[in-house]
Amino acid sequence: MLEGIEIFTAVVEANGFTAAARRLGKSVSFVSKEIGLLEERLGVRLPSRTTRQVSLTEDGQIYYDECRRIISVADSAARALAESRTRPHGQLKISAPVSFTLSHLKSILPAFMDARTDKCSSC
After folding, report:
1. Same domain membership, residue 112 and residue 55
2. What single-letter DSSP state applies at residue 102?
């Protein structure tokens, strides 16, 4: 179902099956078949096809708007995951002699704690 959403939005945004197929690296027949299967699953006609253009039906416009929302949420979730991997998080346990801690870690721990708490209120 999600691949169908990706293909459908590509067809709409590229304003055609050929351009969408090129953008997705798929054949035109594959894209056309997937749109047909999507329409069959949904029980509605999404784009109106002519030899020169693709235009959305009323149902197609509603579905496209929702697909864009879904893609936006998915992109946001991916960005959140990527961001969580770039900043310190979790619990840090250090086992070191006091002399090492005072001479090497004392000056960097406050910056680490600031970086951790500034960006992550739930950590």
Report:
1. no
2. I
**Residue 85's pLDDT is what?**
78
Pair (14, 70) in one structural domain: yes
Beta strands at 54-56 and 47-49: parallel, antiparallel or unpaired: antiparallel
Q: Which residues pair with 47 in a beta bridge?
A: 56
Same domain, 44 and 79: yes
29 and 64 share a domain? yes
pLDDT of residue 88: 65
The confidence score (pLDDT) of residue 79 equals 92
Q: How many domains does the chain have?
A: 2
3-state secondary structure of 55: strand
Exposed, middle or buried, 72 (CB in 10 Å: 0-12/13-18/19+)? exposed
Is 95 found in the same domain as 76?
no
Supply the range of the domain harboring residue 119.
Answer: 90-123
Q: Which pTM value belongs to this model?
A: 0.66
Mean pLDDT by 10 residues, the chain (123 residues): 91 94 96 96 92 89 96 93 76 85 86 66 50
Non-local (6+) Cβ contacts of 39 within 8 A are 45, 46
